[in-house]
Amino acid sequence: MQAKFSNSYFYLLRNMKRKIKYWKIAPGKNGFLWVEQRDSGCIAIGWGEVGDLSKYKSEEAIIKRFNQIDWGYKTKPYQLLKFYKEVKYGDKILASSGKWIYGLGTVIGDYKYDEALYYEHSKPVRWELTFWEPLDMEKLGLPKKLVKRLRLNRTILELRREEWELIDRAISRVKTPFEGLKNFEGLCRAPETEQEVIILFSKLSQHLKMKIESVSTRFPDAYVRVKEGRRWVTKAVEFELFSSDFQAHGHDPKKCDIIICWKDDWKSKPRNLRVIELRKELEEII
Known about the structure:
This protein is α+β, with helices and mostly antiparallel strands. 27% of the residues lie in helices and 28% in strands. The chain has nine helices and twelve strands. Strands 1, 2, 3, 4, 5, 6 and 7 form a seven-stranded mixed sheet that branches.
């Protein structure tokens, strides 16, 4: 009887003599496509107007088509070709953009032009580590030279093995309650805007023993009912991504009772202002 082998077995045989490569690839500018690519099990890049690269007969044909397109900005085809030709099965991927690290994974298949994705040029990836709240590489204790290289404005960057090992060790030391979390009450990632802080607060309001009375577009952002003993008391609330944004926005602390934020980073805040850090509250229930 002829033995049956999985596709991954044949991929392994085909690539077993090949040296594993290590790549930093950006899941969109500032990681705006990370959730889509994480949930789709892939890493993908732009320049989709070129079309399915596997349909072209040669690299020269791809370059010719690339150069025919008016991109509206200065760009060359070499990052796209590197992604298509050099990122292979078994290679390691660091999903990173700017100073943020979103995940680490391994390529598990071949190139696919996937029109269901925002960026169509894709490679399937098994994500071994993902972060609901991205990691700040500048706080991982990595060498400054490496951080500077990782922050180069490039979609794809090949890393040396020793660089990958430094990154891997640094990430392994990070203690975060949100590692592997993909969704919390419909939120696919940690808040990055004030509006997302409001959404998260609405999900945690019962945990905080609060009720939303009204929300406005003017200062203060909202009035909430707060449980104090047996009574419900109305308090003026301002939502901020970081508590220090309250001061940066020029708000009057005398006209507000509570700041509700994702992170509390305001060390010199007035004593009369209560700050509720949603990150800390969420840690308690995850």
